[in-house]
Amino acid sequence: MDAPLSLESLADLESYFASIGRAQGIPVGHALGLLEGGRLGQTYGFALGREAGFYAGVAEALEQMEGEHPGTVGIRSLKTLSTITSLSTNFPLTNPVSAHAAANDDDISVGHSHAHDAAADDDSERTDMADPSDAIRALRARYRLLLAQLHAHLAKTRADSEKGASAPAVTNMDVLRFDYKPPGSGQASSLGF
Q1: Positions of the region Disordered (predicted)?
Q2: Which of 7, 12, 66, 168 has the fewest C-beta atoms under 10 angstroms from its C-beta?
Q3: How buried is residue 142: exposed, middle or buried, by Cβ count under 10 Å (0-12/13-18/19+)?
Q4: CA separation for the pair 127, 154 (Å, rounded)
Q5: Cβ neighbours of residue 107 closer than 8 Å, sequence gap 6 or more
Q6: What DSSP string runs through 58-121?
């Protein structure tokens, strides 16, 4: 007759199968994660590029408008426009892996730095940003500053009305338009992008 199984041998058996499953599952999960991450990165990268291109297009259109009608945009706004143009021209096309993630392959958050960089907090007009997330945040901030300088207000679009949005949102950049009143002018103008 066989010896009865003890609880210790059952616990060892469970840990044995868990270690085999882990050894087989990690490479498969890593491969599938790379595939899924690549797809997600492509989608997110396209959206970031589209948004950066939108801001560059708005800056280019307003610079053309200033060239055709001097004094429409204003000196401070021209400086902001040149900053937007510079940021969009130097927009990073790759996402670098942070030093923390490169040092630790088991880290799930590849590309996201856990260490807070104090230099990234300054509000200077840096154009040498290596991270697309930082670059798009800087572009968004300059765009909001430009809208404030132009006394512009985002107009509610038909797409926003259909969604029942209470405030205009930049959801569909193809139908974005803003109304503004140039400084020193009594007339309101409308631009559509």
Answers
A1: 108-129
A2: 7
A3: buried
A4: 27
A5: 100, 101
A6: HHHHHHHHHHHSTTSS-HHHHHHHHHHHHHHHT--SS-PPPHHHHH-TT-S-TT--SSPPGGGG
The DSSP bridge partners found for residue 153 are 179
Q: What is the pTM of this model?
A: 0.59
Judge whether 142 and 19 are in contact, CB under 8 Å.
no
Residue 28 near residue 34, CB atoms below 8 Å: no
pLDDT digits (tens, 9 = 90+) for 129-168: 578 889 999 999 999 999 888 877 665 555 555 555 444 4
Q: Which pair of tokens denotes residue 182?
A: 């140039």
Partners of residue 177 on adjacent β-strands: 192
